[in-house]
């Protein structure tokens, strides 16, 4: 198979993964509404993931803090990644356990009315499960960008959005598109409140 056909196959696979989100439009609408209402009340959004999903969390954080679209200038929106920095990550992994990385940071910053977004292609990461458990105790809404069958964390998520794929790369591609879509819709709803 030549490069053209290989590329076409990957594009079709990526498109199929993204299309699996269409039947979940109600969950996506709920996520948009929950995030919008939280921000209207001057609460914050926290977001976390591991590996490529950590990069996606930082990517989406930057777009809320700075801007998502070049033609939309508004004040920065309060969102933070729970994978703080190398010092925090290594201290927590060394002094406690890596599975407490997100819950430790969440315990310091999570308050009633905030929203937590977890990004996990498997839904089985221990640190994602721990932070979801703590958010349930604190009655903080959790939105899950998940893959495969949602994994063990699915039962702890208030709004699970699952990319129907077993391919990690395809799931991650769909997650970043999903994040862009949700954040754009939130921005549209808040444009008057948060205009500069």
**Tally of DSSP β-strands:** 5
Q: What is the residue-averaged pLDDT?
A: 93
Q: Taking strands numbered 1, 2, ... along the chain, how are they ordered across the largest sheet? A: 2-1-3-4-5
- How many helices in DSSP terms? 7
Number of domains: 1
Instruction: Estimate percent helicity.
Output: 40-55%
Under CATH, the homologous superfamily reads Glucose-6-phosphate isomerase like protein, domain 1
Instruction: Name the beta content range.
Output: 5-15%
What summary fits the major beta sheet? 5 strands, parallel
The unreliable regions are none
The ordered string of helix (H) and strand (E) elements is HHEHEHHEHEEH
Shape: globular
* First-residue to last-residue Cα separation: 52 Å
- From the coordinates shown, what is the CATH architecture? 3-Layer(aba) Sandwich
Over all CA atoms, what is the radius of gyration?
A: 17 Å
- Reported by name, the CATH topology is Rossmann fold
Structural class: alpha/beta
Please give the CATH class: Alpha Beta
């Amino acid at each position: 198979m030549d490069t053209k056909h290989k590329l076409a196959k990957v594009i079709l696979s990526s498109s199929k993964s993204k299309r699996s989100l269409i039947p979940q439009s109600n969950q996506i609408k709920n996520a948009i509404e929950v995030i919008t209402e939280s921000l209207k009340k001057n609460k914050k959004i926290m977001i976390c993931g591991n590996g490529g999903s950590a990069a996606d969390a930082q990517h989406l954080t930057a777009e809320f803090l700075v801007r998502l679209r070049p033609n939309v200038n508004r004040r920065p929106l309060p969102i933070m990644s729970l994978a703080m920095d190398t010092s925090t990550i290594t201290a927590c992994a060394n002094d406690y356990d890596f599975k407490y990385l997100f819950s430790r940071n969440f315990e310091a910053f999570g308050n009633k009315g905030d929203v937590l977004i977890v990004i996990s292609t498997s839904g089985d990461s221990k640190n994602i499960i721990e932070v979801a458990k703590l958010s349930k105790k604190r009655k903080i809404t959790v939105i899950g960008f998940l893959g495969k069958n949602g994994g063990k964390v699915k039962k702890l998520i208030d709004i699970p959005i699952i990319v129907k794929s077993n391919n990690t790369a395809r799931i991650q591609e769909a997650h970043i598109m999903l994040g862009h879509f949700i954040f754009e819709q939130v921005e549209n709803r808040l444009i008057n409140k948060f205009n500069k």
